[in-house]
Please model this.
Amino acid sequence: MIPFNVPPFLGTETDYIVEAIKNQKICGDGPFTKKCHQWLEEKTGTAKALLTTSCTHSLEMAALLLDIKPGDEVILPSFTFCSTADAFALRGAKLVFVDIRPDTMNIDEKLIEDAITEKTKAIVPVHYAGVACEMDAIMDIAKRHGLKVVEDAAQAVMSEYKGQALGTIGDFGCYSFHETKNYSMGEGGALLIKDGGLTADAEIIREKGTNRSVFLRGQIDKYTWVNYGSSYLPSDMNAAYLWAQLQQADMINENRLASWQKYYDAFEELEKEGFVQRPIIPEGCKHNAHMFYLKAKDLEERTALISFLKENGVMAVFHYIPLHSAPAGQKFGVFHGEDRYTTSESDRLLRLPMYYDLTDEDINKVIDTVIKFYKG
Ligand SMILES: *Cc1c(COP(=O)(O)O)cnc(C)c1O
Model:
């Protein structure tokens, strides 16, 4: 069976993990965490990057830093992972889902303004498949209405919009280093902070509400409890695993992009003949080959294709059950406007195996099996 995902592993991770243990600093903010912070800041150009225990927790930190309160409203797509919504539901906010664009599966920036009320506090664009949302338009809306922007860039490490790293355009950017993402530490993530002035507040929330970060830098003699917070910092052993991959980030990225391109080229014919649709990468977007998806005619055809692939040794999976149709989505949110594309387009989408070091042999087998399904 060709798996859908294999967590990235280069070999150097184990050496670094052993080193972290030998350093006798396996708690948070040790030497490997610092290396990851520095890499993220240099690579993306953000004012401040902080490793976290997950992208879910990065989103929670953003919601806390924005002081989201019960009754506040947050605008987001319904076609996303539940974590995007959880972070704001936890603070008592009302989730206002708007429709997506069928070309990128990203929030339709043209529908955002109509969903804004005097209670709206933030817009949360999700860069699906590592392909950027229309950030110029979204930042312009946010500016005109005095709203904050939190980018769910879980899938978008190494992606860009008009030359800017995704996750650095909004007020906060949230990365994931879960094992299903392009770069991994098992479970983990990062919070990118555009306004460096918020770093101290973020560090306090991340360190149980204490100013331990300032203490560790030797700027104060002892640390104390100064605000509410939680424990959002990962062990340095996890950071060691991630560091091995960040060092090789360009190589991993190129490897994935090459696999993506092979799929893309191979399905050109099927698309021309009207069988499937391939992903669309708008002008100005540099993606990171986080996933390769196809769109079948409808739900029925997609279900048949997924089972055909499975029978022939290929794991393909769909994505997402729209949040507004899930029980929690109904409890915490409303869909604003018409669901023109969210449900119908998500019904058609299936993701093919995509991971670092996917072999040509396996790619060809996946391609041949899809073609066989349509053409016999
Ligand atoms: C993976 C993912 C998350 C959650 O990431 P974790 O690191 O597992 O918390 C959130 N949003 C999106 C869009 C994701 O793909």
About this structure: Residues 12-246 form a domain with the Aspartate Aminotransferase; domain 2 fold (CATH 3.40.640.10). The pocket of pyridoxal-5'-phosphate is lined by residues 54-56, 80-81, 83-84, 126, 152, 154-155, 176, 178, 189 (CB under 6 Å). The chain has 14 helices and 14 strands. Residues 185 and 200 are 25 Å apart (CA to CA).
